[in-house]
Amino acid sequence: MAFAVSSKIIFFLFLFLFVLSATAQRYVTSGSSITANKTNSAWESSSGEFAFGFRQIIPGGYLLAIWFNRIPERTIVWSANRDNLVQEGSKVQLADGRFDLRDPRGQQMWAAPVSLDRVAYEPCLTLSFENPTDTLLPTQRLDRGVVLVSSFSETNYSKGRFLFNLQNDGNLVSATRNFPMDGPSFVYWSTQTNGSGSQLIFNQSGYIFLAAENGTVLDFVSQSEALSSQLYQRAILEYDGVLRHYVYPKSANSSGGREMAWSTVEFIPVNICASMADAKLGFGACGLNSVCSWGSDNIPQCKCPPGYSIIDLNDRMSGCKPNFVAQNCDEGALETDHFSFIDMPNTHWPYAAYGQFSPIPEDLCREYCLNDCFCNIAVYRDGYCWKLQHPLINGRTGPREEGLGLTKAMIKVRNNNATAYSSVFKKCKSSPLIIIGSVFLGSSMFLLSSLLLYFFCFNRQKSKSLQPYQDLPGLNIRRFSFKELQVATNGFKEELGRGACSTVYKGILKNDNIEAVIAVKKLHKMATEGEQEFKAEVNSISSTNHKNLVQLLGYCEEGQNWVLVYEFMSNGSLAKLLFENSRPNWYKRIQIAFATARGICYLHEECKNQIIHCDIKPQNVLLDDSFTAKISDFGLAKLLKPDQSKTTTGIRGTKGYVAPEWFKNMPITVKVDVYSFGILLLELICCRRNYEPEVEVENEMILADFAYDCYKEGTMHLLVADDDEALGDKRFDKFVMIAIWCIQEEPTLRPTMKRVMQLMEGSVEVPIPPDPTSFITSV
């Protein structure tokens, strides 16, 4: 798609500036071009202070930009394709009175008309383009209706969360962006010059001010002493929502004692945390469930409440998530003994409250929150009590003078040794919804350790004396007797599947005249692999089930009879659907891809302790009667301790889906599951196995290699042959690119599953993937 740009955008600046040769300058003439590659070729301005060209932002992804060219930082001040990086080999050309940016396949990515064949303007004097990105430079003017949009982060130049603009009514404002839409959400700073503001001016002396139509100064944005012409200057709306005026010495002699680096001379607002105090919508200055405080370095500090952690370590404004299982809301299961409060003084989320009480003592405020499963935090001040629930909006912590004195937030957290509520095996509905599968997710490590001690350290003969219907406290599973499972499976008669260590049978469980279909997994190599598999599956239990994970219903351990009981999945495995039946439609395949990604993301991001599945493949993705995908078979799963992000272990998994690091004696992280998901995603897209030795063309034998070749050569339609549904969906190319990112040989290049979900959902643009076999050092 071509992205046409108004002639106003053509900032007459360097739209075609000079290229400096070794001995003399020459004009950029019609027909001149620059190609995106690692040499970072560029056109320089006549002074050499600015350059225009491609900058590599991520491996294989380039930004067409303008930057300060004589300082080591090479600070970018404008870009053409901030939301749509181009890949290596893309080219920008000046021809036929326009600048034209095209990717290697010739698709137009951006264009801008030029009124002259050759332009000899000095950028630092004539940088008056009317569609800036996030930066203003001296002599630049901001007219009504023109908007600065912050970048998403320090390293991601795509449009972010904040806006700065002179509105059509003459009011100069900073506002949160209704992300990912473009409109403003909440104005947190304003000159309040409705009807009078005409133009924001950044003059050569370094003053930034709002002027009326007759030239009268209405308000100063930056009014420091006149700055020397020996300083570079810029004003930028940074990714944290603060507009900062920076200077940089042009030489050591002109630094005047300044460090040779960008330094701040003015910024607005003076405290963005306080400025956001009245925002009733949005993510605020720090993201949902977080708190903002103004730092001594004049940068907003984003923190998580006790018991919470940041969602994305690479984005301090991503918000916070609880590290514990929420309070159970089932009748009679409030778990009030399992929760307590951690005080957080001088803190409040004023617009997250759904209940208020007064006058009451603090102890009663705590009690009201404790007895309410929806209450996540109680806030108390001067006899007033507020109950808050997720998501918590625009949290702030600060001193008394900011209005937060004597305000106490009481954070409700699960006690370290408390487990999630466990109900007895509940009556099953008569529908065949109940399905085959795999394991998951019981509670705290304390009880898991106790359970394992029980299984493996006590004399097994003691198990025979236990009540066959006794449930294990703290786990959402039931203990069955072996005889009961023999009856349910009619003597283990109907086999559903078989593995190296186990066989799965279909069974019917009767409970108060209600029948439920179950899948019974009987382990049969108890001395070695089977015992390890049983331990792994039990260890993988956490406190909350997920709709995209097959639910473990119970277990049996009597002597050498070790059995796991799951819900039954009526439509079998994804492998059967993809490789044995006729091709499922594109929509169904996409839904399965999303469901599988959500399940893996849950294991990696939302469990109290991360779980690495280690064996993601189509055979372990099962489908219920409505073809909802659920991940199964946690026999190879690896449970990480709370302080672990990686582990070492022997090779696990299935050939073709095993990440390369397994074979390199490298520590194993959750990225091994990301790799396996990438292979599975390609199989879903293409409806073929990852390895097919009988194909007619040899280079199509390995799907991962074939997919990248097709992507690189612009022939991705070959991946799906006559699948018009897939080819007609604009997501097709994107999903192939996501899969290529997932199968990068270097683990650090692979996205997290959370990022994979964002890429699939479209909330984040998919960058250009590099060759999976390359070893570039950053993502």
UniProtKB/TrEMBL annotation:
Q: What is its main location?
A: membrane
Membrane-traversing stretches: 433-457
Domain named Protein kinase: residues: 490-776
GO CC aspect terms:
membrane
Looking up Pfam families in the UniProt record yields:
Pkinase (PF00069)
- Which reaction does this enzyme catalyse, per its entry? L-seryl-[protein] + ATP = O-phospho-L-seryl-[protein] + ADP + H(+); L-threonyl-[protein] + ATP = O-phospho-L-threonyl-[protein] + ADP + H(+)
Q: Give the signal peptide range.
A: 1-24
Q: Which SUPFAM superfamilies match?
A: alpha-D-mannose-specific plant lectins (SSF51110), Protein kinase-like (PK-like) (SSF56112)
Segments forming domain Bulb-type lectin: 25-161
Its annotated compartments are: Membrane
| Name of this chain's protein | non-specific serine/threonine protein kinase
Source species of the chain: Olea europaea subsp. europaea
